[in-house]
Amino acid sequence: MTANAHRAVPVPAAPTRGDTRRRVPRLTTTSGVMTYILIALAILLPVPYMLQLPGPVFNTLGDYQGKPMIDVSGAKTYPTDGRIDMLTVAVSGGPGRDTYASQALGALLHSKETVIPTEAYYPLETTREDVAASNAVEMSSSQDVAVAAAMGQLDKPYKVHLLVGEVVPDSPAEAKLRKGDRIISVNGKKLDSDPAAARVMSETVQSSDSVDIVVERGDEDVDVAMKPETIDGRKAIGISMKQDFEFPIDVSFNVEGIGGPSAGTMFALAIIDELTPGAMTGGKHVAGTGEIDPAGNVGPIGGARQKVAASTARGAKLFLSPADNCAEVIEAADQSKITVARIDTLDDAQNAVEKYAAGDTSDLKKCPADGADNNEKGQ
């Protein structure tokens, strides 16, 4: 044997139990920290969604910032009592404002909040200033239309003139109609002073291969003819229309900072209440929502879930819901605390409030229990 035959071969020592305990936690800790960081980053990332939350509530029969919310003059008015609440929706996110994933996840678990894609409401290029301007225009328009609806409900005559709003470039109307033209007739149908003029104008254009329009421009009448073109799937001549009202009374609204069209029905009810003897509510607390047209038809609005939640929280016992919002309202309403009445028209709304004031809600026109639409009267 050589001298090296008995030399021991060195074998690496196995790590002791203590060594293992020291090394494994370091890897686990590092992995855990990275996981928490990634989760935190995901939660704090902005997402393209808006959150709808219950907003402030305003009594249309009361004051706002020290002044009457609705001030009627030019006719005899009567003292009233109770509350006819208009409701608002607070929006988190949207153009110019970020919504974070954590907020969206929290809202999904909250029955009073709704998460909606921003693009479902606004084109990508919309700015915060665009939103504010649009809301202001819609609020102003809803005020005029509310007065018109109230005048119709009270059988008080008024005049309405249909004006050309904007003219779309490269449309049939370009160079023929101008912003501010007062539309007198279309295809021989007189429109001036007709509350339904906008609808008649739209229906005539969509059903005609050519239209002959007479407008008042300055001190003269101008006759223009054109052929509608298909724009976005429907016949059009390329104008927006604006209504200019002449009322027998003056109504001023103190609603600075509040936007959108959904208070129209509540405004109309408050005006009727001020112009008729006695308190429509009987001193009770009602709330509701709904866009309205000059003929008194009530249309659906956004944020119905938030609005019924806000009205319940403020103590209202009757909620007026547009028919097309029934499903959302019934799902969100605590019907042990608030009665939901379905309204298709301003007349429905007034009848519901007066019946509630008299203590009889047995034959109210109600949203069906499953929230489905129901067109039968008295249901």
From TrEMBL:
On the tree of life, the source organism's domain of life is Bacteria
User: Which keywords has UniProt assigned to this entry?
Assistant: Hydrolase, Membrane, Protease, Serine protease, Transmembrane, Transmembrane helix
Q: State the active site.
A: S262, K307
Q: Which residues form the Lon proteolytic domain?
A: 180-356
UniProt-listed PROSITE patterns: LON_PROTEOLYTIC (PS51786), PDZ (PS50106)
* InterPro entries attached to this UniProt entry: Lon_proteolytic (IPR008269), Lon_Prtase (IPR027065), PDZ (IPR001478), PDZ_6 (IPR041489), PDZ_sf (IPR036034), Ribosomal_Su5_D2-typ_SF (IPR020568), Ribsml_uS5_D2-typ_fold_subgr (IPR014721)
- How is this protein named in the record? endopeptidase La
**Organism, per UniProt?**
Brevibacterium koreense
